[in-house]
Amino acid sequence: MLEVNNLNKFYINGDMKLHALKNINFNIKDGEFIAIMGSSGSGKSTMMNILGCLDRNFSGKYILDKIDISKIGEKDISSIRNQKIGFVFQSFNLLSKLTALENVELPLVYAGVNKKEREIRAKEILTKVGLIDRIHHKPTELSGGQKQRVAIARALINNPSIILADEPTGNLDSISEKEIMELFTELNNQGKTIIIVSHEPEVANYVKRIILFKDGEIIKDGERL
After folding, report:
1. pLDDT in tens, 76-98
2. CA separation (Å) from 166 to 24, 37, 59?
3. Rounded-to-integer distance, Cα 194 and Cα 192, Å
4. Among residues 205, 200, 199, which one has the least CA distance to residue 182?
5. CATH code of the domain in which 194 resides
6. Residue 25's CB: how many other CB atoms inside 10 A?
């Protein structure tokens, strides 16, 4: 599903040149459950931006579903992000004036899906993440764990190839963290490919494979390091 070959990323700041990612190579198969881990400054967030097609300023190859990301235009990139990648963020990124249902519907609004179909699909996904009784609540009326469930539902609404989660438990208490990681586990068991970027050691207890970064390099790649 996903292939990274000899990938390098540099940041230029005046006369300074920072080698942020160094000759990165790995493959991810359909249905895997992976954590990309490392301390602050290790390169994991830079790697996430590339995997999410948010940053294409790199050398080497990144192939997603047989598409060479470095060789396509910005319009096509936007389409790929919308159709193939479901994003989940630490800060939830929900719109405060919209209900849970309306937040989940948003990607379908952008895709031009009619209102009735949007509502049916959003309710199905919110049921799946255990929030059907909160569909008319706004983010301020939800707990942190519930907000993240809404964000996960929104990420799932277009049935993407990959769920890419950036520090998804970073703003949660330990009980909510456990609930969210168990939800990801359930989704993976249903066949979803899930990539979690995190520095929290608890995440490692749930995933099936860990890619560990340090100083811009992969230092370990395997099961439960």
Report:
1. 888 888 888 999 988 899 999 99
2. 19, 11, 23
3. 6
4. 205
5. 3.40.50.300
6. 13
Q: Two tokens at 146? A: 């519930």
Answer yes or no: are the C-beta atoms of 99 and 150 closer than 8 Å. no
CA–CA gap between residue 68 and residue 89 (Å, rounded): 25
Find the helix packing angle between 144-156 and 174-189, rounded to 10°: 20
Q: What is the 3-state secondary structure (H, E, C) of 157-207?
A: CCCCCEEEEECCCCCCCHHHHHHHHHHHHHHHHCCCEEEEEECCHHHHHCC
> Band of the pLDDT at 171, cuts 50, 70, 90?
confident
Indicate the pairing of strand 193-198 with strand 33-37: parallel
The two tokens of residue 140 are 């301020």
Sheet holding 67-68, edge to edge: 16-28, 2-13, 59-64, 67-68
CA angle at residue 223 from 214 to 162, to 5 degrees? Answer: 80
Spatial CB neighbours of 55, under 8 Å, sequence gap ≥ 6: 9, 46, 49
Number of domains in the chain: 1
CB 197 within 8 A of CB 169: no
Residue 153: both structure tokens together = 């539902």
Share of the chain above pLDDT 70, in %: 99
What is the Rg, in whole angstroms, of the alpha carbon atoms belonging to the chain? 18
Identify the domain containing residue 87 by its residue range.
Answer: 2-222
Q: What is the DSSP letter of 107?
A: H
Calpha distance 142→150 (Å, rounded): 10
